[in-house]
Design goal:
It is a single chain. By secondary structure, this protein is α+β, with helices and mostly antiparallel strands. The chain folds into four domains: about 70 residues, no CATH class; about 120 residues, no CATH class; about 100 residues, no CATH class; about 300 residues. The protein contains twelve helices and 28 strands. The strands form seven sheets. It has a nine-stranded mixed sheet. Strands 1, 20, 22, 23 and 25 form a five-stranded antiparallel sheet that branches. A hairpin with a 5-residue loop joins β2 and β3. α2 packs antiparallel against α3 and α6 crosses α12. The longest helix is centred in the middle third of the chain and has 82 residues. The two termini are about 30 Å apart. The relative contact order is 0.16.
Length: about 775
């Protein structure tokens, strides 16, 4: 029987996973039965899963029986000819000491990630099957999301690296965002890192011609870093936080001084308001008394006019005495009634009380003005003047904010330099390679050959050897040799790969650990300076504080509209020459003179004059009974009476005008003091609002001071928390295949698409097909 010849290329089954943040290193089992699971996922070019198989590897210290579990559709021993026994999901085999591998194929397996690949050519979506050989502007969208139907433990704890290789002969003007790019001959490798628990939508843009693309590789390993936060130098950071706390303390002290000054002003305004209220009450009482005095004065002037007219008629008609006597008696009775009303003690008592209340109110008003000046305005002026507490507090506040801004600018500079160093380190790491042969790492200067034989016999046809040479950052030469052996298959396939490594791979892990730490620190810097989410950054807070301080400074003591300028004007108007205090003194002096002239004990006072007039008219009324016997004397008296009452009538208009002016002045005083009381109430309300505002300012700055008192500890604690999240030290590896597998030391994923290539012309005689595993 003739052997059927099947031509197929066999490429060495070697998975090389080069991670920017950590090399994939084999984890050696503590006991003989621990294993590693390498999960291989074949993807379609649209990201859908085409097949999943798992290579389980053991490092056995002795010959022993292995028991494993997995719901495999088929299994295969990759290390020997021994058969694997299956009993449901239980797999057993007797294995020899050393490395042992077996493969299990999964028909239905949900990987932790959902991968979507879409393509746009010249703005229109195109199927990957139709993309090969096309030209134009190409966009590749790679969307990585959590698979809700898979075990969430792997999504939360595994780091992904995506590697896209674009041939620069076919791709120009390649644009990416958030990727690390590296050149390798004609290829440009675009690499993305997705941290554990993250979802990303990645976009690559490029101009393509006769497009082809190698398979896209996606590797997943547990996110684990060895980071010692105690080795981080935070001295410069804590030095800056000390300056910040000092500035905040100055801010708090300044706000306290502002608050105390506003309280002093409020106290002075209250005293001033009490004096204004007393003046208003006295003016109201005076106005009421004068209102009662006015009818008496009117009656008095009317009576005087009548007496003068009667006396004149009496003088003219003394020859007809009986008639004149009756007329005079009537006039005297009317005059007596008027003088009685005018000399009413109740009316004069109210007038005197009004004068007393006005003098008391003016005295309290003066006392309030002086107290407001000494206890309110003067201390506030001192506080707002050069060297004053309030001005010093505001200037200290402004100095503290300026110092904080300088600190913020220096932090920005440090953060920018730190970002640049982090990017430089990332580029250095991306140029280093770690070559993994099967599940073993090739060490420095070592050449490794890995040959596997499957059942049957193979006849060698020919071999194609690929040799790649590159230089890492340290000048070490890295040589990778790949042998593709093309065989005429009868029963046997041989796979061989040789790798020569001249660099020291172990250094990569240290650099990657440092790189992860620096990226974490950079993120913390940006969160502090620029803020995140609803929390404003340090720069925003200092800008707002600076603007508020400038407004406060201008409102307190700068410019013609500042509080200090208004205080000087108010003090001058109250206690300066010709001010309100002098006006109160003048009013008190005039009021005393007016009280003396109206209610005093001197002979010429209005009160005594009216009393004497009332007595004289009473005497006149009594004397009319004896007039018939004393005609001559009566005629002389009538002549004198006519002359006196004529003069008194002329002067009564002056008394009426004076009384009207007094009532008008009292009304004006009443209205003015009422308006002043109203304005003083508004001023008190404004002072209360100012006190409330300065109190809130002080409480706010006190709270700010309390919250920033341990800012250096908060920052260091935040750094430790973020480092703890990234370290992955608490993560315990679990089996991807079955929860029954308890002794699993490592799990890693290797996913790869088919790649996009143009269809090749088939030969009539034989067809060769290359497969890449």
């Amino acid at each position: 029987m003739k052997n059927k010849k099947i031509y197929r290329p066999v490429i060495a089954a070697t998975l090389s996973v080069i991670m920017v943040t950590g090399s994939v290193m084999p984890v050696f089992a503590v006991d003989d039965t621990k294993k590693e699971e390498n999960v291989y996922v074949n993807l379609q070019n649209d990201g859908s899963v085409d097949g999943v198989y798992v290579v389980n590897s053991y490092d056995l210290k002795k010959d022993q029986k292995i028991t494993d579990y997995g719901d495999y559709s088929s299994v295969k021993n990759l290390s020997s000819d021994r058969s694997l026994k299956e009993n449901g999901d239980k797999i057993t085999v007797d294995a020899k000491k050393g490395k042992f591998y077996y493969q299990g194929n999964l028909d239905s397996a949900s990987i932790p990630w959902t991968i979507d690949l879409t393509y746009e050519l010249n703005g229109e979506e195109i199927s990957p099957d139709d993309l090969a050989g096309k030209s134009g502007r190409l966009k590749i969208h790679l969307n990585i999301r959590k698979n809700e139907h898979a075990d969430q433990d792997f999504f939360k704890n595994f780091l992904l690296q995506i590697s896209v290789t674009l041939n620069t002969k076919h791709c120009k003007n390649i644009k990416t965002k958030g990727a690390t790019e590296a050149n390798s001959g004609d290829d440009k490798k675009v690499m993305y890192n997705i941290m554990a628990g993250q979802e990303k939508n990645l976009v690559i843009e490029t101009e393509v011609k006769d497009f082809e693309m190698d398979p896209i590789s996606i590797s997943g390993v547990p996110m684990s870093f060895d980071i010692d936060s105690s080795q981080l130098d935070t001295g410069k950071l804590t030095d800056k936080t000390k300056k910040l706390k000092s500035g905040v303390s100055s801010l708090k002290e300044g706000a306290n001084q502002v608050n105390e000054g506003s309280k002093a002003m409020k106290s002075g305004l209250l005293a001033y308001g009490q004096g204004v209220d007393a003046v208003y009450k006295g003016a109201d009482t005076l106005f009421a008394g004068l209102s009662q005095l006015n009818p008496g004065v009117a009656s008095y002037t009317n009576g005087v006019d009548q007496v003068a007219s009667g006396a004149k008629q009496l003088e003219q008609k003394t020859q007809n005495l009986p008639i004149l006597m009756r007329q005079m008696t009537s006039a005297v009775n009317q005059l007596k009634n008027g003088s009685s009303n005018l000399s009413n003690p109740s009316a004069w008592k109210q007038i005197e009380q009004g004068f007393s209340q006005m003098k008391s109110g003016l005295s309290k008003m003066k006392e309030g003005l002086q107290k407001m000046d000494s206890q309110g305005l003067a201390p506030m002026k001192v506080a707002l003047s050069d060297g004053g507490q309030l001005k010093n507090g505001v200037e200290n506040l402004e100095t503290g904010i300026s110092a904080a801004k300088m600190y913020s600018e220096k932090l920005n500079s440090v953060s920018s330099a730190y970002d640049q160093q982090t990017q430089t380190l990332g580029k250095i790491i991306s140029n280093q390679k770690s070559t993994v042969v099967g599940s073993r790492t090739v060490k420095d200067g070592q050449t490794t050959k890995d040959t596997q034989k499957e059942e049957g016999t193979y006849t060698k046809d020919h071999t194609e050897t690929k040799r790649e040479t590159s230089t890492d950052e340290n000048g070490n030469i890295v040589i990778t040799v790949t042998n593709d052996i093309y065989m005429t298959k009868t029963d046997t396939v041989t796979k061989t790969k040789e790798v020569t490594e001249s660099s020291k791979v172990e250094k990569t892990a240290e650099l990657q650990s440092l790189y992860g730490s620096m990226k974490t620190n950079a993120a913390i810097f940006h969160a502090i300076l620029d803020g995140n989410g609803s929390n404003p950054g340090l720069s925003t807070i200092l800008t707002k504080l600076g603007s508020g301080t400038s407004q406060l400074k201008f409102g307190l003591y700068e410019g013609n509209s500042s509080m200090r300028a208004y205080l000087e004007i108010l003090q001058k108007q109250m206690t300066g020459k010709g001010g309100l205090t002098d006006g109160v003194d003048t009013m008190m002096s005039g009021l005393s003179k007016l009280e003396t002239s109206i209610c005093g004990n001197q002979e010429k006072s209005v009160k005594n004059g009216i009393s004497a007039l009332d007595q004289g008219i009473g005497t006149l009324k009594t004397s009319t009974n004896s007039i018939p016997g004393q005609m001559n004397q009566l005629q002389n008296a009538i002549a004198q009476l006519s002359s006196g009452t004529s003069q008194l009538s002329k002067k009564s208009s002056n008394l009426t005008d004076g009384t009207k002016q007094l009532v008008y002045g009292a009304s004006s005083l009443k209205n003015g003091s009422q308006t002043l009381a109203s304005k003083t109430s508004s001023l008190n309300e404004g002072a209360q609002k100012l006190t409330d505002g300065t109190g809130k300012l002080y409480e706010g700055t006190k709270t700010f001071s309390n919250q920033t008192g341990n800012i250096d500890e908060q920052i260091l604690d935040g750094i430790d928390q973020e480092i703890s999240k990234l370290s992955g030290k608490d993560y315990k590896v679990k089996s991807f295949v079955s929860s029954k597998n308890k002794k699993v030391s490592a799990v890693q994923f290797a996913m790869k698409t088919k790649g996009i290539e143009k269809k090749k012309e088939t030969k009539k005689k034989e067809t060769k097909k290359k497969e890449r595993l």
